[in-house]
C-alpha cells in the first residue's frame, strides 16, 4: 500500500518529515535530537531494515542515511526510496569516504554527502539547503503542472467551442482559426490561414467589416461587437449571419506558439475574436417581423404595412405636388365558393387571385390583403384619373377567366372603388374609407366593375347606413309584406300562378319596393333572412288557397344568387316546403341565367335535386344574360320568362319584337313554357297571343296585391283579371 502524500510542497509553514537511519543507537539519537531542536518531524530507524519498514508506512520529504548498515545498507534503502518515494530528498551521513562510495551515492540520487563525525551546524545548514532547493523544485513543478492544465483546458475550450475562434495578424490575415469554421462555413482552417478575413465576408458587408477593427477605442476591455454576413464555401447554405466579437492583443501577452487543433498557431497574432452563428435568430426575427406586417396566406402586405406605405406616399405626394390613387377591391361570389367548396379551396382561390392581381401592378405599387376577400391597392405617382382607370380595367380583366380549383371551375369578379389624392381625401383614413364607399356603389349597381369616389356618395352612404339599420329592425318588427302578382293564361284569362313579391312597410317612408332595399339586403347579407320570411309567408298563403279549391295554383318565387349558391340551398328550401305541407309540384323557383353560369357544375346539380322533388325551374329575365342554348337543353328547365324590356319594345318595326319572336320560338322548340312579363297594353297582349305565348303577367291584369285582396279575388276565375 502506497503511503499518503500531499501534492503540495512542505514549505509555506508545513513541517518537513525526515527519516534518519543508522545502526549506531547513540549517533542515531543525537542526530534525531538535533533535527527536532529545529522543529523537524523526525522518524528514527535503527538499521536499514527498519528504515525500509518505515518507508512502506510513511511518506518522507527527506532521508538522512548511513551507508554502512548490516543486512540492509544505505544503498538498499536509497533503492527502496527511488522505487516508492522518488520525490523524497536524500543526504548521506556516513563514515565511508572513498571516492567510489561517494560517487555511487550521488549517482543513486543523493543530494549531498556529510562525513562522520559531523559538525552539527554544518549538518543543519546542509539539511536546510536541501529542503529549500527541494521546496523550490516542487513549487516549480506544481506551477508547471498548473500551466499545462490551463493550456490543455484552453485548447479544449477553443477546439470544443460552438463558435468560430480566430486570430488575425496586423494586416487582418488569419493566423489561427479553430476547426468549427469547417462545420459552419465549409472552409478548412488551413486554407484560410494567410487569407485576409474579407475573403469570407459577404460583399454587402466588406466595407463595414474591414473598418470595424480600425476604431480608435477598441481594447481588450472594450471589444468591438457587430453582426456581419459571412459567405459559405460554394452555395451549400449561402450567406449566414454571425455576431463577431474582436479585440486587439499585446504581442508580449501572447508568446504562445504551440499547435492547436485547427489552422495556424497564432504566431504574429494582433487580434483575437469569436464569431457566433446567429442565423436562426435572425431568421426568427425576420419571420416575426414578416408576420407582423404581412398576410401569411397570400404573402401580401397586411393592413398595418399598407397604412404605413400609404402614409409615406401621401407625404411624398404633398412634397412633390403629385397625385396618388387608392383602390378598394372586394371579390364577387367569393363567399359562396368558400362556403360551397370549403375553406381550403377558398384559401387556394385567394392565392390564385393574388397571383393574377400582382401581374397587373407597376413597380412601386402596393397590393395588400385588407382582410377576408378584401384587398387594397396603392398607386403612387399617377398623372390623372386615366392612369387609375387603366389599372382597374386590367384588374377586372385579369379575374374574368375561370379559376381551376381541383375538379372545380369557378368564376369570381371584383368590385373596385377608387379614390384620388388629394381630391377624394387628404388623409390616409379618408382615402381608404372613401374608396370603400365607392366600392359599395359598384356592388349596388351589379358588381364586377369600378367607380371613382364622388362627394355625393357620402350622402348616399349616410342614407344607406340609416336604411340598413331600419332594415334590420324591419326583420325584427315583422314589417315585411308579401304581395302577389297573377300569372294569367292569355287565352282564358284564368289565373294559373302567383309570383310572390316582397314589399317593406316602412314606418316613415311608407311602402317600399324591392328596388329600394333588395340591393342593400344582398350587400349586408340580410337577403337570406328576408327570403326565408317571404317563402314562409308565401307557402302559408298559397298553400291555404291550394287546399281551398285551387289545386293547380302555382307559386313562383324569386331567389337571390346568394341563396342559390349556398351549399345547403336545396336542403333549406325543402325543409321550408315540408314545414308548411306545401306540394313541391306547385312551387316554381325563378333564377337568372347569370346565377347558373357563375358555377354551372354546382348549380346544375342543385337544380336536378329540386326537379327530382317535383319543383319547377324558371329562368327569369331571359334574354338579358348569357342566353346559352347549351345549358337550356342540359338542365331541368320548365319555364322561360321574357324580360319586360323586350315586351315594352313590342311596337311595329322595333328590334325588341324580333327578340320576343326568337325567344318564343326557342321555347316552343325546346318544349318549354313561356311567361311574358310587363304586359301593359292590348297591343302587347294580342301580339304575344299571336306568337303562342299563353302566359303573361303585368299591369294589364293589375299590380301585385296583398294576400287579403288575392283571397277575395280568387273566387272569380273566368272574369278578366281587373278583379286583381
From TrEMBL:
Domain GGDEF: 322-455
PROSITE patterns according to UniProt: EAL, GGDEF, PAS, RESPONSE_REGULATORY
Domain of life: Bacteria
Keywords of this entry: c-di-GMP, Phosphoprotein
SMART domains xref list: EAL, GGDEF, PAS, REC
Molecular function GO labels: cyclic-guanylate-specific phosphodiesterase activity
Named cofactor requirement(s): Mg(2+)
Response regulatory domain mapped to chain residues: 17-131
PAS domain residues: 150-202
Keyword RNA-binding among UniProt keywords: no
Domain EAL: 464-718
SUPFAM superfamilies in the cross-refs: CheY-like (SSF52172), EAL domain-like (SSF141868), Nucleotide cyclase (SSF55073), PYP-like sensor domain (PAS domain) (SSF55785)
Pfam families per record: EAL (PF00563), GGDEF (PF00990), PAS (PF00989), Response_reg (PF00072)
GO BP of this protein: cellular response to nitric oxide; phosphorelay signal transduction system; regulation of DNA-templated transcription
Enzyme class: hydrolase
EC number: 3.1.4.52
Modified residues (4-aspartylphosphate): 66
Catalytically driven reaction(s): 3',3'-c-di-GMP + H2O = 5'-phosphoguanylyl(3'->5')guanosine + H(+)
NCBIfam families: GGDEF, sensory_box
Protein name (record): cyclic-guanylate-specific phosphodiesterase
Native species: Marinobacter gudaonensis
Amino acid at each position: 500500500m502506497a503511503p499518503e502524500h500531499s501534492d503540495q510542497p512542505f514549505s509555506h509553514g508545513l513541517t518537513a518529515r525526515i527519516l534518519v537511519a543508522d545502526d549506531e543507537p547513540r549517533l542515531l539519537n543525537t542526530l534525531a535530537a538535533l533535527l527536532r531542536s529545529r522543529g523537524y518531524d523526525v522518524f528514527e530507524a535503527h538499521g536499514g531494515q527498519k528504515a525500509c519498514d518505515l518507508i512502506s508506512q510513511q511518506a518522507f520529504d527527506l532521508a538522512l542515511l548511513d551507508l554502512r548498515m548490516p543486512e540492509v545498507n544505505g544503498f538498499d534503502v536509497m533503492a527502496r526510496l527511488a522505487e516508492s518515494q522518488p520525490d523524497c530528498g536524500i543526504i548521506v551521513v556516513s563514515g565511508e569516504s572513498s571516492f567510489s562510495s561517494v560517487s555511487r551515492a550521488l549517482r543513486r540520487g543523493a543530494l549531498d554527502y556529510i562525513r562522520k563525525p559531523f559538525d552539527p551546524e554544518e549538518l543543519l545548514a546542509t539539511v536546510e539547503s536541501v529542503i529549500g532547493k527541494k521546496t523550490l523544485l516542487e513549487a516549480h513543478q506544481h506551477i508547471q503542472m498548473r500551466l499545462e492544465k490551463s493550456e490543455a483546458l484552453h485548447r479544449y475550450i477553443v477546439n470544443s467551442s460552438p463558435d468560430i475562434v480566430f486570430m488575425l495578424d496586423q494586416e487582418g490575415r488569419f493566423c489561427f482559426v479553430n476547426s468549427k469554421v469547417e462545420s459552419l462555413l465549409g472552409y478548412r482552417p488551413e486554407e484560410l490561414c494567410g487569407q485576409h478575413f474579407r475573403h469570407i465576408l459577404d460583399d454587402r458587408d466588406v466595407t463595414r467589416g474591414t473598418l470595424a477593427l480600425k476604431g480608435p477605442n477598441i481594447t481588450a476591455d472594450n471589444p468591438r461587437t457587430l453582426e456581419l454576413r459571412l459567405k459559405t464555401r460554394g452555395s451549400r447554405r449561402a450567406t449566414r449571419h454571425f455576431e463577431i466579437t474582436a479585440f486587439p492583443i499585446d504581442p508580449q501577452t501572447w508568446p504562445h506558439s504551440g499547435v492547436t487543433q485547427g489552422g495556424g498557431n497564432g504566431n504574429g497574432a494582433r487580434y483575437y475574436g469569436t464569431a457566433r452563428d446567429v442565423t436562426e435568430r435572425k431568421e426568427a426575427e425576420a419571420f416575426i417581423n414578416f408576420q407582423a406586417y404581412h398576410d401569411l396566406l397570400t404573402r401580401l402586405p397586411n393592413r398595418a404595412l399598407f397604412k404605413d406605405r400609404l402614409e409615406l406616399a401621401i407625404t411624398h405626394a404633398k412634397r412633390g405636388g403629385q397625385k396618388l390613387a387608392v383602390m378598394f377591391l372586394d371579390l364577387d361570389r367569393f363567399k359562396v365558393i368558400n362556403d360551397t367548396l370549403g375553406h381550403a379551396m377558398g384559401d387556394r382561390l385567394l392565392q390564385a387571385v393574388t397571383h393574377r392581381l400582382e401581374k397587373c401592378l407597376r413597380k412601386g405599387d402596393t397590393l395588400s390583403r385588407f382582410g377576408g376577400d378584401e384587398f387594397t391597392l396603392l398607386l403612387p405617382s399617377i398623372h390623372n384619373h386615366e392612369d387609375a382607370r387603366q389599372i382597374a380595367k386590367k384588374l377586372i380583366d385579369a379575374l374574368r377567366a375561370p379559376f381551376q380549383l381541383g375538379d372545380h371551375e369557378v368564376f369570381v369578379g371584383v368590385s373596385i372603388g377608387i379614390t384620388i389624392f388629394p381630391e377624394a381625401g387628404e388623409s390616409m383614413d379618408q382615402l381608404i374609407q372613401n374608396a370603400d364607399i365607392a366600392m359599395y356603389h359598384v356592388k349596388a349597381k351589379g358588381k364586377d366593375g369600378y367607380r371613382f369616389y364622388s362627394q355625393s356618395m357620402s350622402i348616399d352612404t349616410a342614407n344607406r347606413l340609416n336604411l340598413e339599420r331600419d332594415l334590420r329592425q324591419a326583420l325584427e318588427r315583422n314589417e315585411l309584406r308579401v304581395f302577389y302578382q297573377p300569372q294569367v293564361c292569355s287565352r282564358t284569362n284564368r289565373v294559373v300562378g302567383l309570383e310572390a313579391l316582397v314589399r317593406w312597410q316602412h314606418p316613415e317612408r311608407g311602402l317600399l319596393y324591392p328596388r329600394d332595399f333588395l340591393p342593400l339586403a344582398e350587400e349586408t347579407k340580410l337577403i337570406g333572412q328576408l327570403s326565408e320570411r317571404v317563402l314562409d309567408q308565401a307557402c302559408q298563403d298559397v298553400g291555404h288557397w291550394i287546399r281551398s279549391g285551387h289545386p293547380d295554383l302555382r307559386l313562383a318565387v324569386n331567389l337571390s344568387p346568394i341563396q342559390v349558391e349556398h351549399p345547403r340551398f336545396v336542403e333549406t328550401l325543402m325543409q321550408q316546403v315540408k314545414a308548411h305541407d306545401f306540394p313541391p309540384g306547385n312551387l316554381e323557383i325563378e333564377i337568372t341565367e347569370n346565377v347558373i353560369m357563375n358555377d354551372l357544375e354546382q348549380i346544375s346539380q342543385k337544380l336536378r335535386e329540386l326537379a327530382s322533388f317535383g319543383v319547377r325551374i324558371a329562368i327569369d329575365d331571359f334574354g338579358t344574360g348569357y342566353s346559352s342554348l347549351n345549358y337550356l337543353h342540359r338542365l331541368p328547365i320548365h319555364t322561360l320568362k321574357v324580360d319586360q324590356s323586350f315586351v315594352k319594345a313590342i311596337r311595329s318595326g322595333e328590334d325588341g319584337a324580333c327578340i320576343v319572336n326568337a325567344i318564343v320560338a326557342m321555347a316552343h322548340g325546346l318544349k318549354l313554357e313561356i311567361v311574358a312579363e310587363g304586359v301593359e297594353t292590348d297591343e302587347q297582349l294580342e301580339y304575344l297571343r299571336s306568337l303562342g305565348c299563353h302566359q303573361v303577367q303585368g299591369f294589364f291584369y293589375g299590380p301585385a296585391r296583398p294576400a287579403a285582396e288575392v283571397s277575395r279575388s280568387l273566387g272569380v276565375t273566368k272574369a278578366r283579371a281587373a278583379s286583381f
